[in-house]
Amino acid sequence: MKRLVAATETVAAVFLLLIALLTAANVTLRDLFAWQIPDWFDGTKLLMGIALFWGIAVATYHGSHIAVDIVWEHLQRRGQRVLDIVAGFITLAFLAPMAWMVFSKVLASGTQATTDLRIPLMWFTAVAACGAAAGAWLALARLWTLVRGDDEADTGGEYGATDGP
């Protein structure tokens, strides 16, 4: 499982790096030579979609997404665990159909392509769909570790050493 999580983190980071490099290169070329990279805008949008899906997968597994813990912080350890399990079920209930719909988008993209270079959109949506699927699988893995009760070992031990606030 650690290898899958590490690979997911790496994929998300690589696509963020590609976005930064493509943007920086385009700005430099535009300012110095009055020339821009063909499809740089479409490319960065598509790469951002990929990075977002893979980032959602990482954040879901680690439970590090943006959350308001006003209720969770005031619960005892058992209540926190129950709330985390309920939240895990809800997250999985949203991510699994989303992954299915993104894969449907891959199949429906047909011959759509970028504006300048005519790069097929299918390749970008396929990589994004893999990220959406990774999100659903990692949500299931996190939920499984929460239900089994060994969440401290796998997801960073969010419960701490005490039973309450």
UniProtKB/TrEMBL annotation:
Belongs to the TRAP transporter small permease family. GO terms for biological process: C4-dicarboxylate transport. Keywords: Cell inner membrane, Cell membrane, Membrane, Transmembrane, Transmembrane helix, Transport. It is a multi-pass membrane protein. Residues 19-148 form the Tripartite ATP-independent periplasmic transporters DctQ component domain. It is found in: Cell inner membrane. Part of the tripartite ATP-independent periplasmic (TRAP) transport system. It comes from the Bacteria. One of its GO terms (cellular component) is plasma membrane. InterPro entries: DctQ, TRAP_DctQ. The keyword tRNA processing does not apply. The chain crosses the membrane at residues 46-70, 82-101, 121-140. This is TRAP transporter small permease protein. GO terms for molecular function: transmembrane transporter activity. It comes from Rubrivivax albus. The complex comprises the extracytoplasmic solute receptor protein and the two transmembrane proteins.
